[in-house]
Amino acid sequence: MMAARILIVEDHPANMEMMTFLLESFGYQALSAYDGEEGLQAAYRDRPDLIVCDVHLPKLDGYGVVRQLKMSPDVRHIPVIAVTALAMVGDREKLLQAGFDDYISKPIEPERFIGQVEGHLPAALRAAPPPGPSANACADAPKPVAGRARILVVDDSAINRELIRDLLEPFGYVVKLAQSVEEGRQAIHRAAFDLIVCDMHMPLENGIALLREVKGDPELAAIPFVFLSASYEDEVNQQLATSLGVTRSLRRPIEPQALLAEIAACLPIDKRGKPYGKDPGR
Question: What are the chain's domains?
């Protein structure tokens, strides 16, 4: 049976991206709406299995959304989880009294988010977890496959870094995070990596500087280098990256399965993860 369809009503792009990324990583179909009115329309139109709704929204806030949903016989059965930064005494009771079935506190914790959502889904609609060790695995759980790739992720966005790590580590990849080109530069001279995934535009130095340094060093030049960026639109930068030897140039947002496949395609067979029981390099 197909996993649940989950509607996310959230006006903050980074939060929307993170929740969508996490849900799709586990096989759920994520639907999106960026204000309360759009969220209501999507709920009536698409009849999702669950709704994750921000409290502070433009046009119609989360309280207005849940109030109208619970008044409608057609959609009142759909669980609605509030996402909120509220932390005052009594806030939880206020949310539940307003009609929300539960709430998730901001900032969202990626390692807990899926479990918080799945608690409100029937077993038949829950996605099968991806293979490999989980964040809650016990100490004697199986270790990642020996020889699996070591991947350096360079991105100034903490959310982007954590999303990529949360996607890759369950499949046995060893992930090192760097928040700047300088930090990435230090990392590649301290340890050996099988792949570098780098944002293009970052403060102080952009990804082109790191690509130039890696490809200009005979000891590092063979490392596959992937740009993953939402702003990889500049034709000059595209041409420069190609001339310097970039392996892949990917545009964010990208579906989790697609990113896994692109990463696997850059690696030798013996260092690939195998998400969802398939060879992602095919």
Answer: 5-125 (3.40.50.2300), 150-277 (3.40.50.2300)
